[in-house]
Design brief:
It contains 15 helices and 24 strands. The protein is of the alpha+beta class and 543 residues long.
């Protein structure tokens, strides 16, 4: 059989068969259906200079889907595709975000190259993993923003200097953080570029992380020493955060899909099954769990720290596996119903809806972490698939508005880390209050993430405008001469007191979501891509 090749040329996609070039279709966004031997359907989409291909097998019950990548298949149906390509932005807001990314990268490149993070005030590097965290965490953002020179710098470092056997990694670090930031970053950029070096590095890291799942329960331990290949719990407790053990499955499952090695997915599935089997209260779970017994501990329930991404990954695992595993959807939907029953409240006098916490089964706290703002986008994404569940979008809209008010009501226009809400309708207390210990801003992405979903799902430009207001506040109060810094006080414009820390997730998540929010057309279709909890892109599979 002759080689068949599809490629993009200006606004057309062509299909080559038996050395004859045949135009399949032109125009901006269209579909074409063909029959090719053992593949019953072949759908092409040309979208923003990207090729998307989906093949569904009629002879195999486990259908095969390919994503927007440079794909090569051997045998009678060989298909070659270019990688996903991005252009330089023309939108003024996107250009401003790209400039911010360049400013952050230049400072890191100048003062902390090869180290994990930058201290922008001291102009010194910061050590954590010993794996060049900012490089790996930010490389897909560089690629999406078409920052070619900076991307090539990052790629070269990953090829020549990324090493899980150096003395720099001879220490215990968080299994969860390494998985979502480093492994997630490598998988994401591999899917975007199909560059084998990223796949190689992901396998090297994944083989080490797999060791942490060797427990009696199947849940991963909290820490790992990559060099020594030793895993452990934290020194001070045998418990792990629920979010940490419940937010590593997407990455391990994806690693199996790109390698064909089932071990990673089997570990992910076993840990997911353990979490599913544990007793819950209307879908809600405590924020601590034992990796040894697999049992939840304590009574505190929160969609903020230590609880957040457990719920996020329930929905996204359902999507990742082609909506084929109903336990993920059922557990997620039950947890939203639990939110309505136990955590959803209205604050006065502004009548803002928010998600509180349970300190025990009978003790409610009107406290909400900024981290919980992710749930607005998460619920909107759930509604995207189940439009009949209108309450999901209603709750998403209400929570997004509340989270925006957490920014807008502060003198700097930036949200504190934690706020408290007033539940008494007839009182002189403000709707939102902030305590002295919670006034810092850590450059977090959660609301920007939700604004991205809300805009591209509803089309309401108010979410872009809110995002622009927040971006300008970041520029005014967190931008330093070199890079950006989290700040200690959002209440005092004259003295925000920089913390001298440029979080890697500011480049990996916050700026990426800003950039995508200001794109008029979503370049990552929600039925083809998902983001891990560090905003790294993973494809959705058909099974």
């Amino acid at each position: 059989m002759a080689t068949k090749t599809a490629y993009a040329s200006e606004s057309n996609i062509f299909f080559l068969f038996k050395d004859k070039k045949k135009k399949v279709f032109s125009s901006f966004e269209m579909f074409y259906q063909l029959s090719l031997g053992r593949f019953s359907f072949l759908f092409f989409t040309y979208y923003c200079n990207c090729i998307q291909i989906h093949l569904f097998s009629s002879s195999n019950t486990s259908s095969y889907r390919c994503q927007e990548n440079e794909l090569k298949f051997s045998g009678e149906n060989q298909l070659l595709f270019k990688r996903k390509i991005f252009s330089t932005p023309k939108d003024e807001r996107q250009i401003a975000v790209r400039d911010a990314m360049q400013h952050a990268w230049k400072a890191y490149r100048t003062y902390a190259w090869g180290y994990d993070e930058l201290k922008p005030i001291q102009k010194k590097p910061s050590r954590w993993f010993g794996l060049g965290l900012t490089i790996v965490d930010a490389i897909d953002t560089l690629y999406i923003m078409n920052m070619k020179e900076e991307y090539n710098q990052a790629r070269e470092w990953i090829e020549n200097s990324f090493d899980v056997d150096t003395n720099d990694v001879d220490k215990f670090n968080s299994h969860f953080e390494i998985t979502i930031r480093i492994l997630g970053g490598l998988l994401s950029i591999y899917h975007l570029t199909r560059d084998e070096i990223f796949k190689t590095r992901a396998i090297e890291l994944g083989d080490r992380l797999l060791l942490n799942f060797n427990t009696s329960s199947g849940l991963p331990l909290a820490q790992i020493n990559l060099k020594q290949k030793i895993s452990s719990n934290y020194e001070w407790t045998s418990e792990s955060a629920t979010s940490e053990v419940g937010s590593v499955q997407l990455e391990m499952r994806d690693l199996s899909r790109i390698t064909g090695d089932k071990r990673y997915e089997e570990a992910a599935d076993r840990s997911a099954a353990i979490l599913h089997s544990q007793p819950k209260t209307d879908g809600l779970v405590p924020i601590y769990i034992s990796s040894l017994t697999g049992q939840f501990s304590g009574e505190t329930v929160s969609f903020g720290a230590r609880g957040d991404s457990y719920y996020e990954y329930l929905l996204k695992q359902w999507l990742q596996t082609g909506q084929a595993r109903s336990i993920f959807w059922n557990d997620w939907l039950e947890s939203i119903e639990g939110v309505q029953k136990h955590l959803w409240r209205i604050a006065y006098p502004e009548k803002l809806y928010f998600i509180g916490e349970l300190l025990s089964k009978s003790e409610f706290s009107p406290k909400m972490d900024h981290l919980a703002c992710f749930l607005a986008g998460n619920m909107a994404l759930g509604w995207y698939y189940r439009r009949d569940l209108t309450y999901l979008l209603d709750m998403a809209k209400n929570l997004t508005n509340t989270c925006y008010q957490m920014y807008a009501q502060q003198p700097t226009g930036l949200s504190p880390e934690i706020v408290y809400f007033n539940l008494v309708s007839k009182s002189n207390e403000p709707t939102i209050s902030v305590r002295d210990n919670d006034v810092h801003n850590l450059l977090r992405p959660e609301l920007i993430e939700s604004l991205y979903y809300m805009y591209h799902i509803t089309g309401d430009k108010i979410y872009q405008d809110w995002g622009w207001n927040i971006f300008q506040s970041f520029e005014k109060y967190t931008r330093q001469n070199d890079g950006y810094s989290s700040i200690n006080d959002v209440r005092h414009k004259e003295n925000v007191r920089p913390r001298d820390k440029m979080e890697s997730y500011f480049l990996a998540e916050t700026l990426k979501y800003f950039y995508l929010l200001f794109d008029h057309i979503n370049p990552f279709a929600f039925n083809q891509w998902l983001f891990n909890t560090e905003a790294h892109l993973l494809p959705i599979y058909s099974n």
